[in-house]
UniProtKB/TrEMBL annotation:
The protein's name: Peptidase S26 domain-containing protein
Domain Peptidase S26 per the UniProt entry, residue ranges: 21-100, 113-154
Organism: Ceratopteris richardii (Triangle waterfern)
Protein origin, superkingdom: Eukaryota
GO molecular function annotation: serine-type endopeptidase activity
Active site (catalytic residues): 46, 90
């Protein structure tokens, strides 16, 4: 047994060093995903015709929301106010303090005049007839914004900057 011990010691050191490198790499990936950029796939009809209903892959930068550099017209990813396990993709139509005229989801509703409260944004899908958005759940707290869409990378040939 003692003849194998000298051979195992360098192997153990190499395994340890590689484990440390892997851990550092995974930590870097986590930091980049949480604070710089992440990849999201969006599916569903709410952002038609901007995005496909069958799924587009988007790059979402996280710095704009951290430094509050979101502006009207930006497409953002946000935690759903109704179900925080879901991430929604919507367009920013109003920032805090702005007065908006909001069209109803269906023809039976009436036009509303909304003032976006402090610390909130008004989000709507581009497909007004088929989108659950701020018209349904109201203004969205700024803290639920995950990031701003800046590039569509899938489908191939459909690269679009936002």
């Amino acid at each position: 047994m003692s003849q194998w011990f000298p051979k195992l010691k360098p192997l153990g050191r190499e395994v340890w060093e590689r484990s440390v490198l892997l851990t550092q790499f995974l930590c870097c990936i986590h930091i980049i995903k949480e604070h710089v950029v992440e990849i999201h796939q969006v599916m569903g009809p709410s952002m038609l015709p901007t995005f496909s209903a069958v799924g587009d892959v988007l790059l979402v930068e996280r710095l704009s929301t951290k430094f509050q550099r979101i502006k009207q017209g930006d497409v953002v990813m946000a935690l759903s106010p109704e179900n925080p396990r879901l991430i929604v993709c919507k367009r920013v139509l109003g920032l805090e303090g702005e007065n908006l005229v909001v069209m109803p989801t269906h023809g039976s509703g009436r036009v509303q005049h909304i003032k976006v409260p402090k610390g909130h944004v008004w989000l709507q899908g581009d497909n007004l007839s088929n989108s659950t958005d701020s018209r349904h759940y109201g203004p969205v707290p700024y803290g639920l914004l995950r990031g701003k869409v800046f590039l569509r990378v899938w489908p191939p040939g459909g690269w679009t900057r936002f």
